[in-house]
Amino acid sequence: MQVDLISKITPKEIGYNLFLALIYILVGKFGLSFASVNPSTSAVWPPTGLAIAVIILFGCRLWPGVLIGAFFTNLLTTGFIGSSLFIALGNTLEALLGGFLINRYASGKNVFDRVESATIFMIVAGLIAPAISATVGALTLIMVHLANWSEFGLIWLNWWLGDMGGAVLLAPLIILWFEQPKFSLTRRRFFELFCALLFIIVATQIAFGGAVPFIPTNYPITFIIIPPLLWVATRFRRRETATMIFITVILCINGSLRGHGVFAGLSPDQSLPLLQSFLVVSAISVFMLSITLTERGEANNKLFLKEKYFSALIEKNQDAITVIDEDSTVLYASPSAEALFSSSPRRLLGSLNFDFFHPDDQLTLINELANLRQKPGESFEKEARIKDNPWRYVEAVFTNFLHEPSISAFVVNYRDVTEQKKLDLKKGEFGAFISQELRRPLSAIERYSSSILTGKKQLPTLEHGYLKQINTENQNMIKLVENLMKMSRIGLGTLETHLQDLSVKSALEEALKNVNQLITGKRVKIERIYKNPDLMTNNDRGLVISIISTFLALVLNRVRARGTLSLKLMKQKERALLKISVRPKLPKKINKLISQNHEEAELFVVKALAAYIGVTVMDELEKAGGGVTLVI
């Protein structure tokens, strides 16, 4: 944080500093009206609070105003230029140190928003900064022979307590009214505050005003000023509390100096420190209570608004939510749970959460929840069936909040996916039907074209080439339809897989036989780099070979004639890593054209089949520049 103290002051800032100096002098003369031990020391020194508040609100650029105001205030009191200058320097250092530290470490003008920052203010502005002014001021008075060394301790104490009182009484008042100048109380609240003010006036007149004839002047009943201040602190905000504290302190000091109150019967060197200590401690205690209550009230209000917001979200959310304890007993059910569980949220309370699930799903969910207990903050998602006629499908997400003291339970979110399951089933059935219907004419075309190509009659070269191209494209379509049928079975849940221990190398060699026609047609050379030829996997042999064959065909479409097909087989974390690449590749424009026009559907289907059996496609064809990497 940079502090600009000596750069060029603008005319506008000169005006501000002169105005501050004038206000400082007026407030200072008001403070010196309470002086008793020494003309330069007062029971409360309001200019300290004014200077610190101004530095906090407007920054250190107004320090000349503090210096000028303090100098002329003391000059008008003592008549000595030298002593007035040194005292003014002490007052200026006090304000600069207090304002700088509070702006740096206690949120500046928001210092009274939190108890922590207000405590820093009380320590810095109420204890540390006044000690500087008191030390400089007391030494100056002694050096210019306005006081004796025997009086140093008493002058220093009164000076320190007076500046402390000014800081903790006036600075909060100025800052809070500056930040919130609008008086926004309702009539009822204003009347209550007015009654509290009357109560304060009556209490201070009884304790320090000699208003009751039958009560002795120095009778110890000063504590009666505390209840009306507590009334204001508990019923109003910080600004009103600071105002009433300031009024109370002024009335108490005025009465005490006129010879009333418990401290009036003592000598000045005893009564003034005791009065200052009593008022400052009372003021700090009441004001800190007000800050604590206001902060707590604001926190409760924010919490209430958040609760109201989240309650509205939960009530309007179509997904059901339940909160269950470690024994799976329902502690809370959202309103939307009624539609899902066919029971009101109130009736769901106390029931066992897993009683609503299909018997075949209960054991899996119980085991998953048992594992989740050991993982605070984590979740697991499961599709399950819930009791209904017929059974309904839901996606249930269990989240462990046992470690959160405010929740200490599992939160379960349910989403009804029954209609989505029905739609997926219909899609699968339709896909299977369409695939089957497409298979028939394609098979017929394959039979007829193959019989013509292998027949005895010799076809002209051009017709033979066209027919061969038709046969090749037809075989590709048959392969795509077969994969579509497999996709449909995945959607229907009827695709059967036969798991067995399978050599990845043998599956790769079998796949190479399936694309042999492409290899020989382009006269492609095969480069085999088998770093781990004995790698095994437990999977469906037919599907693994089909997936590898499809990717081999797709990659071979991207190699130039007489190119090289590179096959690298290695181990990666207990799995087989197969890298398929070609060189030299076709130009990028042709590569992109192939990908856009011919392969999207085939790629989509084969990747879905690969994911279904746990084969990971790490590098796609375009990203790999004509190659692909499979983890089997």
Can you tag this structure with a few keywords?
5-stranded antiparallel β-sheet; 5-stranded mixed β-sheet; 20 helices; 632 residues; alpha+beta
Can you give a write-up of this model?
It is elongated, with a radius of gyration of 44 Å. Mean pLDDT is 81; it is low at 593-597. It starts with 10 loop residues before the first helix and ends with a strand. Helix 6 runs antiparallel to helix 9 and helix 8 runs parallel beside helix 10 (268-316). The strands form 4 sheets. Strands 4-3-7-6-5 form a 5-stranded antiparallel beta sheet, sandwiched between helices. The protein has helices at 11-32, 46-58, 63-78, 81-105, 115-143, 152-179, 187-208, 226-235, 238-257, 268-316, 337-341, 345-348, 359-372, 418-453, 461-492, 504-514, 516-521, 541-556, 588-598, 600-613, and strands at residues 35-38, 41-42, 320-324, 330-333, 379-386, 392-401, 409-416, 499-503, 525-530, 536-540, 559-572, 575-585, 616-619, 628-631. The longest helix has 49 residues, at 268-316. Strand 1 and strand 2 (41-42) form a beta hairpin. With 632 residues, the chain is an alpha+beta fold.
